[in-house]
Amino acid sequence: MPAACESVLEDIEDIVSAEDLKPHDRQFVRKNVFPKVRKRNSQKNVQTDDEPPSDSVIPGVQKIWIRTWGCSHNNSDGEYMAGQLAAYGYKITDNSAEADLWLLNSCTVKNPAEDHFRNSIKKAQEGKKKVVLAGCVPQAQPRQEYLKGLSIIGVQQIDRVVEVVEETIKGHSVRLLGQKKDNGKRLGGARLDLPKIRKNPLIEIISINTGCLNACTYCKTKHARGDLASYPIEELVDRAKQSFQEGVCEIWLTSEDTGAYGRDIGTDLPTLLWKLVEVIPEGAMLRLGMTNPPYILEHLEEMAKILNHPRVYAFLHIPVQSASDSVLMDMKREYCVADFKQVVDFLKEKVPGITIATDIICGFPGETDEDFQETMKLVELYRFPSLFINQFYPRPGTPAAKMPQVPAAVKKQRTKDLSQLFHSYNPYDHKVGERQRVLVTEESFDSNYYVAHNSFYEQVLVPKDPLLMGKMVEVNIYEAGKHFMKGQPVSDARVHTASISRPLAKGEVSGLTEEFRRSAQNGTNWKAQPSAEIPVKTRLSSWMALQLPWQQGGGGLKILSVSLALLAVLVMFYYGGMKTEL
Fold it and tell me: Distance between CA atoms of 72 and 289, rounded to whole angstroms?
């Protein structure tokens, strides 16, 4: 087997060099080929036609371990990559030790997440694993020292993960970091109808847009996801329909800022949501993702109506980050504390019982003790049931990283103080004794309960009765904790089967068409030839000849590469039982 290529391939097409035969030349090369009949050898160690040669690498048969960090958008990307790889024949494994290749899907929001990512790369290399990197870290800073020589799949190129994995398994380093565009206009990303493996077969995560309209001084994600690019409404509705047909009973809408959806394509979030609720079956629910205050302000009336819809959770995640206007200005958040309060107060009035979740950064550069006390007062005022507390970490390349920093000890103490305030109140005590309708979708971390959510997306633990999974049931609340309630199903209550179809099995690939099943089967039936018989770069191309169905019309290999590969395959088939010499 030739040594692995050390040079980095910026794209798959780079495996075809100027020295390789052109399609026209290869068409007539057969006149100079004189076949010989291969003599049969009865020795036991002779390679048979049914076995791959010992020095070949056959893509599509390896085991792949996928690790994802970060937000639900990143998790959705990970599900899509797993689905495409599994559909093409790779085995997705939960055992990192037995995997041939690690696909590491990173998050760049905070330093600890990137540290875990970096350590995983080191561990993979120590274990002699092949590595493909994905997510926001390599997209934002692909030239970091610890990423050198490794394959990277960009956040908008996840529909080409099969190509990158195949070349990486062969020893190449491939980097696809480009943007999806249509007539020069940036698109939301890869197609929504790609195969995927849902982490939870009952929950579909739909990214409605990528990027945002802000330029927050602390945010590294902007460097990776870029400016706002929204998917068309019809594509999102089609994706929701397909999900329900596959047994999904809960949809999460996600993006870097759902409130900004549609501004780049002449529509808005309420318009999308009204279209989506039309296709949600009885017993299924829709959960809205994070939205920043500036964009939700324009649609408060419509959003209140939507959040009161019986098939939409009365839940909204609105990050405030700080209750100091001076700190918000330094963050370039484009709103003031009064704007945030206006949104929260209006929704609390119009959507009784609504759950408002928020984020707070402790120790942002320039934050004074007085600034922090304003934040403490805001939390005391609203007593948020869900609060994400983050100690500030300066991210490389962001304006905030260059600002005068708050001492580490002060940041740590403020984080501790806010955490103590958050844990000083119990938001669900007053709900003990209530009768609630909940949707059961997953198992608890300790495996002792099933996890359900009520209409306000508050967590309710119920008994582990397999008949409850994927169902909407009524329960009596008998206990409350800081982050959950416990409920006992009511014996005489009606049970709603939310799904309109049987859910897919865990690990089953979503969205496969018969066309793809046939294509994948044909591709996996190809046989490799010994390395001495076919030029190295032609062999590297041959497995890429079959364009994946979701790449039709763009994003696949160039015509030259495909032509060379197809001809190479024909040669392999024609002379499969003969020995050639030029």
Answer: 9
Tokens at 450, concatenated? 């099933």
Residue 20 within any structural domain of the chain: no
Domain count within the chain: 3
Burial 82-102 (b: 16+ CB within 10 A, else e): bbbbbbbbbbbbeebeebbbb
pLDDT score, position 517: 53
* Residue 163, both tokens: 């190509």
pLDDT at 48 over 70: no
User: How many distinct helices (H) and strands (E) make up the chain?
Assistant: 17, 25
Q: Under DSSP, is residue 254 helix (H, G, I), strand (E, B) or coil?
A: strand
Distance CA 33, CA 30 (A): 5
532 lies in a domain?
A: no
Q: Please report whether residue 563 resides in a domain.
A: no
Look up the pTM and report it.
0.79
First-to-final CA distance of the chain:
21
Residue 466 sits in a domain whose CATH number is 2.40.50.140
Is the pLDDT reported for residue 54 higher than 70? no
Q: Are 528 and 58 in contact (CB under 8 A)?
A: yes
The verdict on residue 526 lying in a domain is no
Q: What is the DSSP letter of 30?
A: G
**Residue 273 — very low, low, confident or very high, per pLDDT cuts 50/70/90?**
very high
* pLDDT number for residue 485: 98
| pLDDT value of position 109 | 83
Radius of gyration over alpha carbons of the chain, in Å?
A: 27
Q: Where is average pLDDT lowest: 43-47, 167-171, 201-205, 377-381?
A: 43-47
The whole-chain average pLDDT of the chain stands at: 82
Q: Are 538 and 564 in contact (CB under 8 A)?
A: yes
Q: Are residues 361 and 442 in the same domain?
A: no
More confident residue, 569 or 324: 324
Query: Is 26 a residue whose pLDDT tops 60?
Result: no
How far is residue 442's CA from residue 469's CA, in Å, rounded to a whole number? 7
Burial 106-137, CB ≥16 within 10 A → b, else e? bbbbbeebbeebbebbeebeeeebbbbbbbbb
| pLDDT at 6 exceeding the cut of 70 | no
Q: Looking at the structure, tell me whether residues 415 and 439 fall in a common domain.
A: no
Distance CA 400, CA 302 (A): 35
Comparing C-alpha atoms, which of 394, 390, 329, 342 is closest to residue 362? 390
Is 378 found in the same domain as 303? yes
Band (502; pLDDT cuts 50, 70, 90) = confident
Position 416, amino acid:
K
Tell me which amino acid residue 436 is: Q
The secondary structure of residue 165, as a DSSP letter, is H
Of the residues 480, 497, 514, the one at which a domain ends:
497
- Residue length, the chain? 582
